[in-house]
Amino acid sequence: MGAGPALPGTAWSFNRRAVTMTKKNRLTYRLIRSRRRTLSLVIHPDQTIEVRSPLHLSQARIDRFLDEKAGWIEKKLEENHRAELISRQSEQQQQQAALLLREEIEEALACFQGPRPRRLLLRDLTSRWGSCSSRQTISLNLRLAQLPARERRYVIFHELCHLREMNHSRRFWQLLESYVPDARNIRQAINRQYRLTTDREENDDITS
Questions:
Q1: Helix H or strand E encompassing 159
Q2: What are phi and psi of 63, to 5 degrees?
Q3: What confidence score (pLDDT) does residue 173 get?
Q4: Which helix (H) or strand (E) holds 183?
Q5: How far is 123 from 134, CA to CA, in rounded Å?
Q6: Which of 26, 93, 161, 183 is 20 to 30 Å from the Cα of 207, by its Cα?
Q7: Domain match, 59 and 111 both
Q8: What contacts 195, CB < 8 A, 6 or more positions away?
Q9: Judgement on whether residues 71 and 157 belong to the same structural domain of the protein
Q10: More confident residue, 174 or 22
Q11: Residue 204 forms part of a structural domain
Q12: How far, in Å, CA of 77 to CA of 46, rounded?
């Protein structure tokens, strides 16, 4: 396949190539060469594969890198295929999500027997549904609004329970299950059925 375009005055190019990952699976990827020093592999949310390479790195070295990452590639593609991708929302959708989540947080706090969070942050996150810091700040992902009510309730109480138990010990799970009896099953369902849209990247420092 021929090389793609390069802008005048720049040092990069791209083309599309194919690689055989297994006897049954031949994948097409986009190869981008630039003045970078590392070799990296990115899987985008739409399942497209992108390899970013130094300008003069040999194709044989790139092929070897892909062969080394074959298992990782197939695993991530399968995860994306199974899961419902939860994408970024528009500004209006984020405002609506914030209203919904604030209402549900207030409902949860009304029955939660424990300390109140010092701060509550609602943000668009790409790697987690929520978190609780040692300073008792709870952060929740605005994309939670796209999940069913049962899953939202689980995440909210999960973070509230961290105000009492800053770990995932047996005591933490007992506390969480006192508010969400099927917490463990819901957690598994979330991990299995939903995935935040974020690029998956693997790197290889070819300078070492």
A1: helix 149-161
A2: -60, -40
A3: 97
A4: helix 183-193
A5: 18
A6: 26
A7: no
A8: 79, 80, 83, 84, 85, 86
A9: no
A10: 174
A11: no
A12: 10
Return the amino acid letter for 46. Answer: D
pLDDT class of 26 with cuts at 50, 70, 90 = low
Helices (H), 26-116: 59-68, 70-82, 91-111
Nearest to 161 by CA among 144, 128, 189, 136: 136
State the DSSP code for 112: -
User: SS3 for 114?
Assistant: coil
132-145 tens-digit pLDDT: 999 999 999 998 88
Tokens of residue 42, six digits: 């990115």
Q: Which amino acid is at 14?
A: F
Matching residue, tokens 């689980």: 154
Cβ atoms < 10 Å from Cβ of 150: 13
- What's the pLDDT band for 2 if we cut at 50, 70, 90? very low
Q: What pLDDT was estimated at residue 153? A: 96
Q: In what order do the strands lie in the sheet with 25-34?
A: 13-22, 25-34, 49-54, 39-43, 200-204
Q: Quote the DSSP letter at residue 90.
A: P
- Kindly state the tokens that stand for 172: 């933490």
CATH of the domain at 181: 3.30.2010.10
Q: Please give the Cα distance from 121 to 139 (Å, whole number).
A: 5
Using alpha carbons only, give the angle 16, 17, 18 rounded to the nearest 5 degrees.
140
Q: Please give the structure tokens belonging to residue 77.
A: 């593609």
- What is the pLDDT, as a whole number, of residue 121? 94
Considering only CA atoms, which of 101, 93, 92 is closest in space to residue 120?
101
